[in-house]
Design goal:
The chain is α/β, with parallel strands linked by helices and 246 residues long. The chain contains six helices and 14 strands. It comes from Mesorhizobium caraganae.
């Protein structure tokens, strides 16, 4: 397994390149900004980028996903339910994408947005059990993703509650690699530490540890952070349905 994390400050976000060094196969998840660093790391580690995945249609920035996929010859992956103005590889819940000895299993985890997915990653040379989960803006260190981008804040919170229940079923040792950290507009009490584990978040993430649905909804719709600037335009541009904001 080769794993590289890219931390961004404008916008505050985290991207990942990972895969199987032995089979020279990798994926990039939630790329932001200049695509050159991802291409350099892939070249330095001797890996081909087979998939570029966006965990959801982002609202806080313009995704670099399609540009990176085009430059690397990779397939661009989104959840199958996305309405987009360009071709992409539609991933559905339970799909397994192969990267040599590494696999990523798609988990549909809506709530932050309806099409949001997480990726459960296993290195079969180490164990048959998953090693880490890329959670995008569903589960972050210290909090969960904002919900007002769904049909309504309450509907989004109830959908997110079901997604959280799925993530809680993962083994406690599974590492959590989120798509954002402290300073992001996509969450409230986010930690500056950009990684965690399912077990730690069960104990110390106030929203993640709530087991009662009504209490969860009340927590998630209280004090929702203001939406990102140009949120609607960014989402439309990232879906290929409008031009990017200047």
């Amino acid at each position: 397994m080769i794993l590289r994390q890219f931390l961004h400050s404008d916008p505050v976000a985290a991207s990942y390149l990972f895969g199987c060094g032995g089979k020279s196969a990798s994926a990039v998840v939630d790329p932001v900004g200049d695509i050159a660093p991802y291409l350099r790391v892939a070249e330095a580690t001797g890996m081909r980028i087979l998939y570029v995945v966006d965990t959801h249609i982002h609202a806080d920035h313009i995704s670099a996903g399609r540009a990176l996929a085009a430059a690397s010859g990779a397939q661009y992956v989104l959840f199958e339910g996305v309405e987009a103005g360009f071709p992409f590889l539609p991933a559905k819940d339970g799909d397994v994408l192969e990267l040599g000895n590494v696999t990523m299993t798609v988990m549909h985890t809506p709530g932050h947005t309806p099409e949001h997915i997480s990726l459960l990653v296993t290195d079969r040379t180490r164990a048959a059990e998953p090693w880490f989960v890329l959670t995008g803006h569903t589960l972050m260190v210290g909090d969960l993703g904002r919900t007002e981008l769904a049909t309504s804040a309450e509907a989004g919170a109830r959908t997110l509650f079901s997604s959280v229940r799925r993530l809680k079923q993962l083994p406690d040792h599974v590492e959590v690699l989120p798509g954002a950290f402290s300073g992001s507009v996509c969450g409230r009490s986010l930690s500056g530490k950009p990684t965690s584990t399912i077990g730690f978040e069960k104990r110390f993430n106030k929203a993640f540890r709530i087991d009662d649905e009504e209490a969860f909804v009340a927590t998630m719709i209280a004090d929702i952070p203001p939406p990102p600037l140009d949120a609607a335009r960014n989402r439309a541009a990232n879906a290929g349905l409008a031009a990017a904001a200047a």
